[in-house]
């Protein structure tokens, strides 16, 4: 009995298959090199220099007298604030800050003020208003008293 065996598969791929695999590798290598060159060009040429504005240095803290503010539904808020001034800021009048506090907190619900997220949102709004009112001489605001009833 004679049996024929199938020829063993060759370990080497045909020339066409080699050319296709090598072409894909070349394209991938070119794309990778271009991405690296683009990233390096951005890093050295286009990124922000970081020298545009120097960081403000904290100066004195101006503590203002607490005020009572009417809230919604016959509640009230007794709030005290302190302003973090930048170094070299001239003596500031606190009336603009107290006006902003009254404007922002008046008429709010006591519920809104007792939640940390609500207080944080209003503090951020107050900080923004104070930066504008004092033309950048106030860099932060702190609550020194915060009582609702």
Overview of this protein structure:
Helix content is 44%, strand content 21%. With 149 residues, the protein is an alpha+beta fold. The longest helix has 32 residues, at 15-46. The termini are far apart. InterPro entries: FliL. Residues 1-20 are annotated as: Disordered. Belongs to the FliL family.
Summarize the structure.
Residues 1-20 are annotated as: Disordered. Belongs to the FliL family. The protein has 149 residues and is an alpha+beta fold.
List keywords for this structure.
149 residues, alpha+beta, Tetrahydropterin Synthase, Chain A, 2 domains, four-stranded antiparallel sheet, 44% helix, elongated, chemotaxis, cell projection, transmembrane helix, transmembrane, flagellar rotation
CATH evolutionary superfamily of the largest domain = Band 7 domain
Query: What's the CATH first level of the largest domain?
Result: Alpha Beta
What is the total domain count? Answer: 2
Number of strands: 4
- Rg (CA only): 34 Å
Tell me the CATH architecture of the largest domain.
Answer: 2-Layer Sandwich
Walk me through the topology:
Elements: H1 15-46, E1 58-63, E2 67-70, E3 76-86, H2 95-105, H3 110-114, H4 116-133, E4 138-148
Antiparallel strand pairs: 1-3, 2-3, 3-4
Helix pairs in contact: 2-4
């Amino acid at each position: 009995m004679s049996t024929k065996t199938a020829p063993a598969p060759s370990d080497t791929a045909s020339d066409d298959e080699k050319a296709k695999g090598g072409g894909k590798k070349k394209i991938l290598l070119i794309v990778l090199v271009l991405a690296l060159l683009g990233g390096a060009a951005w890093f050295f040429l286009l990124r922000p220099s970081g020298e545009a504005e120097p960081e403000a240095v904290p100066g004195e803290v101006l503590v203002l007298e607490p005020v009572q503010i009417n809230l919604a539904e016959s509640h009230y808020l007794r709030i005290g604030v302190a302003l973090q001034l930048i170094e070299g800021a001239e003596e500031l009048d606190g009336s603009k800050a107290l006006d902003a506090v009254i404007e922002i907190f008046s008429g709010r619900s006591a519920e809104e003020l007792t939640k940390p997220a609500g207080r944080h949102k209003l503090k951020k709004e107050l900080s923004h208003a104070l930066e504008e009112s004092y033309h950048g001489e106030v860099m932060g605001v702190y609550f020194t008293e915060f009582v609702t009833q």
